[in-house]
Structures are given as C-alpha cells and as structure tokens.
From TrEMBL:
Family annotation (InterPro entries): RmlC-like_jellyroll, RmlC_Cupin_sf
Taxonomy, superkingdom: Bacteria
Protein name (record): Cupin domain-containing protein
Length: 97
C-alpha cells in the first residue's frame, strides 16, 4: 500500500514541495539567528519549546515562548537571540506571483 502521508523527524529541511517548505531548527541557549529574509514567501515561525527573542527588520522585537507562533512576510528581515534551548518549526509558503 502506498502512503499518502509524508513523515519527517529531522533537524533542518523536513519537507519541500512546489508551494511550501517546512523546516525544524534546534538551538542552544546563547545561539543567534543571523539577519536574513525569505523573499517571495510567507513565513510562520512556531516555537515548540524554549524561548527566542526575534527581531523583524531590527525595528520590532518579539519574545516568543513555547506554543507561540509568529507570522510575517518573508520580504522582512528576521534575526534573533536564543534565550533557552529551543526547537522551532518554520513553514514557508510561496506567495502568489
């Protein structure tokens, strides 16, 4: 029987399809997220466990803890500091052309 579901349990890129991708990242307290963006994508940043101080365009800061989600247009730049050992899931959805 062919499965219709894909199962992922790895750090880094988990799924990549035509219209979206899903990644899982784990960081240690004190790690940083370098400034970067995801042009052409909508981004959902979901904290599974831990605490992150996330900066959008170096103009706003959001302290995200376990269970919190943040959505932003990928044209914006994200950076951050890891305040506790942390795991996040990141979903990037391609924007309509």
């Amino acid at each position: 029987m062919n499965s219709q579901a894909k199962i992922g349990n790895t750090d880094g890129l988990v799924f990549e399809e035509k219209k979206f991708l899903v990644a899982r990242k784990t960081w240690k307290k004190g790690d940083t997220i370098p400034k970067h963006n995801h042009e052409g994508m909508d981004v959902i940043f979901s904290v599974i466990k831990g605490k992150v101080s996330a900066h959008i365009n170096e103009a706003e800061t959001h302290e995200l803890t376990s269970g919190m989600l943040m959505y932003f247009d990928g044209k914006n730049y994200i950076s951050g500091e890891i305040l506790e050992d942390t795991m996040v899931h990141i979903v990037q959805i391609k924007q309509a052309q």
